[in-house]
Write a structure and sequence with these properties.
Blueprint: H1 2-16, H2 26-39, H3 46-55, E1 64-68, E2 72-77, E3 80-86, H4 94-111, H5 113-118, H6 122-130, E4 139-141, E5 156-161, E6 164-169, H7 176-186, E7 192-196, H8 205-215, E8 220-225, E9 233-236, E10 247-252, H9 259-269, E11 273-277, E12 285-291, E13 297-306, E14 322-323, H10 333-338, H11 354-365
Parallel strand pairs: 6-7, 7-10, 10-11, 11-14
Antiparallel strand pairs: 1-2, 2-3, 4-13, 5-6, 8-9, 8-13, 12-13
Length: about 375
């Protein structure tokens, strides 16, 4: 009887004494509930985002659970009902959803000693858990983190290998186009070009378009499609590419992603290059970064990228003309080159494979 009285007292207190948010800032919730549905290419409503985040409260304490009923949101602790709140009449009202979520989180932090220990880290922990349900490529960045795509000591390298120019691209940034042009001008004697995109995580779509245009003089490079009611944007090659007459081989692997896939697929589809390696990562999407008031940020997919053929790059990736999946360095290069294209070629990390480079050299000699 005494325990029941104490529990009733706690519940009664929480109903009339909602504390000011500490770890779960309502301003952050409001921005999330308003901006994610607007900027995400996937169909996701304000209510969807709110439910995803509310259910993630379980990561703070396994005894906490949020139930989503038709008209109510209910908080449970150790299977006991703590509080039920009616959903906003306007299910797209981000401000009212932020108020509701703030109340739920305040009660949860007060009723659970485990959740309370998270203090200001509660929001980050919940977001890191919830982000996986906000889209395939959605990411959460804790305030103060470096949001750059990748820090590398070397993001570009070019040298002559035998009679061909070997170019290694580590990231697609605003400097890449000039670096490519300079390399081509400095090595005009090259018979062919090897573009090594293995291990490249991508970068700026605009950089991929510009580099593809160096080797193409016409045709579609890529297209971008956002929400169903938005128009398709086409990126086309312009005449006069510096490298439009060069023979090209592109090296890819399972870590080749994003903008790097755009370049590889464009050159393959337009018949300008042979692609060697394994299936690529399959991340053909554009991300929008949403800054939150607490200094953190969330990135969501705002559009998908399509190859010149119309194939969606996201999830599918680039299938190479010559598959080297699980092939040892001693494998006969000519047998691989003459084998039919393997549409079941799987992704694999092959950044250190000399076999792929040997195949490229043979293709360029042909």
């Amino acid at each position: 009887m005494k325990k029941n009285f104490i529990l009733f007292f706690l519940i009664f207190s929480f109903s009339f004494n909602i504390s000011v948010l500490s770890a779960m800032e309502e301003d952050n919730l409001y921005v999330l509930f308003e901006q994610v549905p607007k900027q995400s290419v996937d169909s996701i409503s304000t209510e969807d985002v709110a439910i995803i985040i509310l259910k993630a409260i379980n990561v703070l304490d396994k005894n906490l659970r949020v139930a989503n009923d038709n008209n109510k949101i209910s908080l449970y602790y150790k299977t006991r009902l703590i509080k039920s709140l009616y959903k906003p009449k306007d299910r797209n009202d981000a401000k009212l959803w932020a108020d509701l979520a703030g109340n739920i989180f305040d009660m949860a932090i007060n009723v659970s000693s485990k959740a309370k220990k998270y203090d200001f880290e509660a929001f980050d922990n919940i977001m890191l858990y919830a982000i996986k349900d906000m889209g395939k490529d959605a990411k959460y960045f804790i305030g103060g983190e470096n949001r750059s795509l990748l820090k590398q000591k070397r993001t570009f390298a070019a040298r002559m290998e035998e009679e061909n120019l070997y170019i290694k691209i580590g990231i697609f940034n605003k400097f890449l186009y000039d670096e490519i042009i300079n390399a081509l001008n400095e090595h005009k004697q090259a018979n062919g070009i090897i573009l090594d995109l293995r291990g490249c995580p991508g970068g700026q779509l605009s950089a991929a378009i510009d580099v593809a245009d160096v080797f193409l003089d016409q045709g579609i490079i890529a297209s971008v499609k956002g929400k169903p009611n938005e128009e398709i944007i086409y990126y086309n090659a312009k005449e006069g590419g510096v490298g439009e007459n060069a023979d090209v081989v592109v090296l890819v692997d399972g870590d080749t992603a994003s903008a790097a896939e755009v370049l590889a697929q464009a050159l393959q589809d337009q018949g300008r290059a042979k692609v060697v390696g394994t299936k690529t990562f399959g991340k053909g999407s554009i991300q929008n970064l949403i800054d939150l008031p607490n200094g953190s940020a969330i990135s969501v997919t705002s559009a998908y990228i399509y190859a010149p053929s119309g194939q969606k790059l996201s999830d599918f990736g680039v299938i190479p003309d010559v598959c080297t999946f699980e092939m040892p360095e001693s494998k006969d290069e000519n047998r691989l080159i003459n084998a039919p294209k393997n549409d079941n070629c799987l992704a694999e990390s092959r950044s250190d494979s000399l076999l792929d480079e040997k195949i490229a050299q043979i293709l360029l000699k042909r």
